[in-house]
């Protein structure tokens, strides 16, 4: 079998606190009720009961539980963070595959995979590629690497995911304080018998593509026509109905992939030793554990992680798994369930018997 052998993370040293946004930002958003995309506290057909219940604790907090987030140094690029995270998992094993997901890459094209391979000193024989499924990229990247190794095409792989969202934030937006910078990496390779990646489940819902996009305003202007829009590209909610659906029905989307995945192997929530999901919000972890009937102590307290780091986009679920391992919550032989939604819109889960 194959699976994750080692995990590493790079978090920039610069910490940005809530004070950065100041009184004017707070005044501008003082009338905002509940999460930006969840406009009803009561449970309706469009709001999952777990979402309403767990998010309600943060209604009165403009920052929704965020306290700090890491911010890249001005002289750093996302490829620097990616290389720093990847160095932590490099060992004596021959690496011949590199899969990278960058939010945001150093250049629109070519993307960061070649740069990261060069910064790591990998030989030209390494296959380097970018795989992008939004915030689900760490899950789909690790699963793809594992399957390619199982096929015999490669021996070992490094999977890297990063968030450089500070570079594309509209700092006046209500969601701006929720996002942070950082990178994670995993070494994927052969594992002992009956240990490693067991199965995956992925769904793609393109009708929700407009929930979050990187674009000028208006988004109808082609992003590559800088001569016409003459403004920075920023993360935007293009289709507000899709954005609402992605957040308000986050638990439904989780169940859609996780429940069939567990059922195929005769497992229930109580069998899961650790649940890794992105700390997209302060309540994601507890809401998903509740929905899947996984005991609450088997997920990291997302309220703490979100308060310290914010949401690290594609790197978020990998960081959550990494923190679970180094804290001792993930043990050899545990069933580990990893789930992440991703803009685009992708729902990705993998079931691991931890090596």
Description:
- Mean pLDDT is 92; it is low at 34-43.
- The strands form four sheets. The protein has a five-stranded mixed β-sheet with strand order 1-7-6-4-5, with helices on both faces. The chain has a four-stranded mixed β-sheet with strand order 8-13-12-11, with helices on both faces.
- With 355 residues, the chain is α/β, with parallel strands linked by helices.
- The chain folds into two domains: 2-12 and 71-190, Thiolase/Chalcone synthase (Peroxisomal Thiolase, Chain A, domain 1, 3-Layer(aba) Sandwich), CATH 3.40.47; 47-60 and 196-353, Peroxisomal Thiolase, Chain A, domain 1 (3-Layer(aba) Sandwich).
- The chain is globular.
- It is 28% helix and 23% strand.
- The chain has helices at residues 22-28, 49-55, 78-87, 113-120, 137-150, 226-229, 240-248, 250-263, 284-291, 302-309, 316-326, and strands at 2-10, 14-17, 68-71, 97-103, 127-130, 157-164, 181-190, 196-204, 213-215, 234-236, 274-276, 335-342, 346-353.
- The protein is built from eleven helices and 13 strands.
Question: How would you summarize the topology of this molecule?
Answer:
Blueprint: E1 2-10, E2 14-17, H1 22-28, H2 49-55, E3 68-71, H3 78-87, E4 97-103, H4 113-120, E5 127-130, H5 137-150, E6 157-164, E7 181-190, E8 196-204, E9 213-215, H6 226-229, E10 234-236, H7 240-248, H8 250-263, E11 274-276, H9 284-291, H10 302-309, H11 316-326, E12 335-342, E13 346-353
Parallel strand pairs: 4-5, 4-6, 11-12
Antiparallel strand pairs: 1-7, 2-3, 6-7, 8-13, 9-10, 12-13
Helix pairs in contact: 2-9, 3-4
């Amino acid at each position: 079998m194959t699976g994750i052998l080692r995990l590493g993370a790079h978090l920039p040293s610069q910490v940005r606190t809530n004070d950065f946004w100041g009184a004017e930002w707070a005044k501008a958003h003082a009338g905002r009720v509940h999460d930006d995309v969840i406009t009803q506290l009561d449970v309706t057909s469009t709001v999952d009961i777990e979402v309403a219940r767990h998010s309600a604790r943060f209604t009165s907090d403009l920052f929704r539980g965020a306290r700090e987030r890491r911010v890249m140094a001005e002289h750093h690029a996302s490829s620097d963070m990616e290389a720093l995270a990847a160095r932590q998992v490099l060992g004596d094993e021959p690496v011949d595959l590199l899969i990278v997901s960058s939010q945001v890459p150093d250049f629109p094209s070519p993307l960061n995979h070649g740069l990261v391979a060069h910064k790591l000193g990998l030989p030209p024989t390494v296959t380097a590629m970018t795989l992008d499924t939004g915030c689900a990229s760490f899950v789909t990247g690790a699963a793809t690497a594992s399957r390619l190794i199982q096929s015999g095409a490669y021996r070992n792989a490094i999977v890297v995911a990063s968030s450089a969202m500070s570079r594309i934030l509209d700092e006046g937006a209500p969601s701006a304080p929720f996002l942070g910078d950082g990178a994670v990496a995993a070494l994927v390779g052969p594992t002992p018998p009956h240990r490693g990646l067991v199965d995956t489940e992925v769904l793609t819902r393109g009708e929700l593509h407009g929930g979050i996009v990187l674009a000028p305003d208006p988004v109808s202007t082609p992003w590559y026509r800088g001569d016409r829009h003459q403004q920075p590209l920023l993360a935007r909610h293009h289709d507000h109905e899709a954005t609402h659906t992605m957040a308000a029905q986050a638990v439904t989307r989780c169940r859609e992939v996780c429940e069939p995945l567990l059922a195929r192997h005769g497992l229930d929530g109580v069998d899961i030793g650790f649940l890794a999901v992105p700390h997209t919000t302060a309540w994601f972890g507890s809401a998903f554990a509740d929905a899947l009937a996984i005991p609450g102590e088997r997920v990291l307290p997302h309220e703490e992680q979100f308060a310290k780091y914010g949401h690290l986009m594609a790197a978020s679920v990998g960081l959550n798994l990494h923190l679970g391992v180094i804290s001792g919550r993930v043990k050899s032989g545990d069933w580990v369930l990893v789930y992440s939604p991703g803009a685009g819109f992708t729902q990705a889960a993998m079931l691991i018997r931890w090596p």
